[in-house]
């Protein structure tokens, strides 16, 4: 995992902080303080790209709907194919919650 290079007390503290959030409103408040609008947008955009890729959408359709660059779409595709299965795990859980 690439993130292993950052593993340590600071990253643990960030993840513990995120895990302590109780609802969406708390998420909005925390992410408003900790990240820029561009950073939050980029993260949410990547998740939407991952969702659309796993649903079989084309790059053109994803680019049009999400406004993501083809470089971002390719990077997300690479993570889906060769990454740590984080997108798959989260998307499956979101699908399960909808049911």
Automatic annotation (TrEMBL):
Signal peptide: none annotated. InterPro entries: Trp_repress (IPR000831), Trp_repressor/repl_initiator (IPR010921), TrpR-like_sf (IPR038116), YecD_YerC (IPR013368). GO terms for molecular function: DNA-binding transcription factor activity; sequence-specific DNA binding. Coiled coil: none annotated. It comes from the Bacteria. NCBIfam families: yecD_yerC. This is TrpR-like protein YerC/YecD.
């Amino acid at each position: 995992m690439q993130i292993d290079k950052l593993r340590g007390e600071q990253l643990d503290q960030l993840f513990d902080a995120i895990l302590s959030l109780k609802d969406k409103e708390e998420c909005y408040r925390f992410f408003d303080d900790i990240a820029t609008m561009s950073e939050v947008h980029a993260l949410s955009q990547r998740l939407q790209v991952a969702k659309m890729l796993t649903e079989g959408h084309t790059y053109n359709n994803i680019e049009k709907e999400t406004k993501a660059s083809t470089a971002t779409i390719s990077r997300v595709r690479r993570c889906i194919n060769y990454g740590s299965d984080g997108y798959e795990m989260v998307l499956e859980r979101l699908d399960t919650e909808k049911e």
